[in-house]
Design goal:
2 copies of one chain form a homodimer. The first copy, chain A, has helices at residues 2-25, 29-32, 53-65, 80-89, 141-157, 171-174, 177-189, 205-210, 233-242, 260-265, 274-285, 287-295, 303-307; strands spanning 40-49, 70-73, 95-99, 165-167, 220-222, 247-253, 298-300. Chain A is built from 13 helices and 7 strands. The relative contact order of chain A is 0.16. By secondary structure, chain A is α/β, with parallel strands linked by helices. In chain A, strands 1, 2, 3, 4, 5, 6 and 7 form a 7-stranded parallel beta sheet that branches. In chain A, α3 links the parallel β1 and β2. In chain A, α3 packs parallel to α11, α5 (141-157) packs parallel to α7 and α9 (233-242) packs parallel to α12 (287-295).
Chain lengths: 313, 313
């Protein structure tokens, strides 16, 4: 009897373990974060920190106001030292690295962190990152890895403790399996989640194939597009928030002030320009946004929470 | 008799040649420029173009107002493309290259144009140019030459046609004979005058020793120093202009607006900071300066005139 009771206890214990594991294997990212499956979770994420002082100042202001709760930093850019200094002295903030391989402006430009001779396929004839990638631009994945490792190493060396990685202009997700796997390899090496959403799986099937069971997949992402007229900016965001799906969502925004510096930096085109970024700043630091989140019962989450979620999936 | 006349003509011709050469060998730079020996000539020269948009915008405004008539550009800096584009479309302007080997700010920084691995002695642990040079900083003159050639080549490639070369923070004049001779070698190679003034000969005797007969020597230079109180700024410049000596003078000034970008870029110290540069801008674009030049019978000259002066010295 004693023996039977023990055996039963062991059996029950094993059964519970199996059951727990079976359940948790199916756990969504939302559940792993400790929320019910139908919760609406949101990362409000500012991109491009480090490009200009204007971007840094507006993004810091928005982060400190509490509505924007995550951001990522471009290490090769001139104002990286300013935001690195801020990140170092605000370790509670949710800063990732916005891995950068292009220099898409005209009047302000940047080049590699790695030694130029080691990453020539990433550079134009003046040793800046290419303005854009065309089918004729032959990017060497090995050089991408060298450059991205140099960016991550400089960030750590200057006191940034990133909570995640993502990719400027989505180059690492949208250019092919090889570059995506470079990003994943670095994410694994540095034990940082890399931003991928299942919204992209249809267009880029290699994403899902390359991902392993330990990789994070954000359920949905929202970002405003050039087709939205400036006057319709608040409407776009209000609708996006009202229609937000359950799961983990990332709202990707671009903050700056429409000041002399930002105007000059982006004056060759309106897209993601100074006025665009001021509109984003105005909406996300205004009263509408916070109230909408409350009305829609949307909960803000960070990449730090995602990185630190239970590993018992 | 015929023969004698010919011989006399030849003799006279030779004598005139010798006499002209003997006279012109003693010609001052002022005379080479076509002015009487006691003329007061002045280059009003703005430094540091390319560092920020604020520096570019204020310097362009001052150049276009006509009081400031020369400037030099820092090729490794983030806003170099903006000023290169302006220089390319304003070939009449007097732009030099402000050869740069340091990155002396904290919140905005820059690194080499050359491949980092080829110029390691110039770089700190994060691959920016050193913040400062101390006796412990071992600068390799060969690497200086590699980097400076890369800066000059990028400038030409992006459409700048420099009229002269000078040196950011006077590093190339004040660090020793070896670096000065690198600068001279490049000046000769690119057939550009390099800014040296005889005011520095006492402190750096190697300057005079290294200079050849073809090299330009500016008679005097004037620049404001941190010891001048902000309220005394106009007095300093008024006195400097009233006391200006005959010969070719270069007034080295630093222009920018005291705006958000410039304030952020220079906020760690007041010297050569945003307010400093706004004071320079206000004085040199104000009415006092032009009137003073007239009253003192000072004539503005450019580096282009110096570069194109008669070679029959």
């Amino acid at each position: 009897m004693h023996c039977l009771k023990l055996s039963l206890a062991v059996f029950l214990s094993i059964a519970v373990d199996i059951s727990t594991n079976a359940q948790s294997a199916a756990k969504s990212l939302t559940e792993q974060l400790g929320y019910p499956p139908n919760a609406k979770l949101l990362i409000v994420h500012a991109d491009d920190l480090g490009v200009t002082h204007s971007v840094n100042a507006a993004s810091i202001k928005a982060l400190e106001s509490g509505s924007v709760n995550s951001a990522s930093i471009m290490v090769p850019c001139p104002w990286f030292p300013e935001i690195a200094d801020y990140a170092k002295s605000h370790p509670e903030m949710d800063f990732g690295l916005h891995l950068t391989l292009t220099s898409e402006r005209i009047y302000i430009r940047w080049g590699p962190v790695a030694s130029a001779d080691k990453v020539r396929s990433l550079l134009d004839e003046n040793s800046y990152f290419h303005h854009d990638w065309t089918p004729a631009t032959k990017i060497d994945p090995h050089e991408v890895e060298i450059e991205l490792r140099a960016q991550i190493e400089r960030a750590y060396a200057m006191g940034v403790r990133p909570t995640h990685l993502d990719s400027h202009q989505y180059r690492l997700e949208s250019t092919g399996k090889e570059l995506f796997e470079v990003a994943l390899r670095l994410a694994h090496e540095y034990k940082l989640p890399f931003f991928v959403t299942r919204d992209w799986f249809a267009d880029f099937p290699y994403l899902e194939k390359s991902l392993g069971p330990e990789d994070v997949v954000i359920d949905h992402t929202i970002t405003i597009e050039p087709t939205v007229l400036p006057a319709k900016w608040p409407d776009f965001y209000r609708n996006a928030i009202r229609n937000m799906q359950p799961g983990v969502n990332e709202l990707v925004i671009h903050l700056a002030y429409d000041d002399a510096e930002m105007h000059a930096a982006t004056r060759e085109r309106d897209t993601w320009g100074a006025a665009w970024r001021q509109r984003d700043f105005d909406f996300f630091t205004g009263p509408d946004f916070r109230k909408l989140l409350q009305d829609q019962q949307i909960t803000l989450v960070t990449w730090r929470q995602i990185a630190n979620r239970t590993q018992h999936k």
